[in-house]
Amino acid sequence: MRTGFYCCYLLRSLKRGSRDYVYVGSTPDPARRLRQHNGEISAGAAMTRSRRPWEMILIVYGFPSKASALQFEWAWQNPHISRHSSFDSVPYALQRTLYGSAQKKLEPKLATLCVMLGLPPFCRWPLHVVCPDPQLHTDILTRAQQHNVPAHISIARQDIAAAVEQADNYPFLSPPEPGDRCSLCRQSLEQQRPFGACSSCSAKWHLACLATHLTHSLLEDDGSNCQPPLLPTTAQCNECGHTHIWGDLARAYAAAIDE
Fold first, then answer.
1. Rounded CA gap, 99 and 79, in Å?
2. Less Cβ around it within 10 Å: N or C end of the chain?
3. What's the predicted TM-score (pTM) here?
């Protein structure tokens, strides 16, 4: 497993009389963390001991950094005291669910998740939601539509272990070759300056140049005075038009300089 992987997860208790109880956490290794929660190995969270055994019913991954994953975890665990004022923009009836007393139950946690995925800053991150259960997956998809979760956030029905393995195999970005140039500014590419490469053609760019190019394109297409976001959520290659998830480009560069 690559060291860059880090996810938030949702556990559901399998104990008789406690099946509606859930727990939110975060980890770089979901399989190991579930074993810890179930007491098979040491270091499980103390608050989950009384409702063992647990099952992991979904994970969220693709965070820009571990710090951002912890930020997401905190807001998911504590929407009633989170500093994300964006929660205040949701309808009052839904706020009663998000801020209510049943914070350890499945319904509030699913509602909170889908609201968060549709609000900044989380809606701009290249997130993936993975849920193996078909009924729960359908439920999350329905909620996502209700809360305008953006299309670049994927919600997949998939085995969690398979999803983790797949996440470790995001495209590898090799260091720039001598003579490589940004296809936008035509200046040399250097590993010290964030860069990216198209997976469908030979184009390479400085990420700052690509972001600037996309910002100008949005302004021209929109024709209004609305200021687009500083960083896009998706990026189209200027040469072949292939669409990339912006966060995946950033993660590929981060992995390249860590090699």
1. 6
2. C
3. 0.81
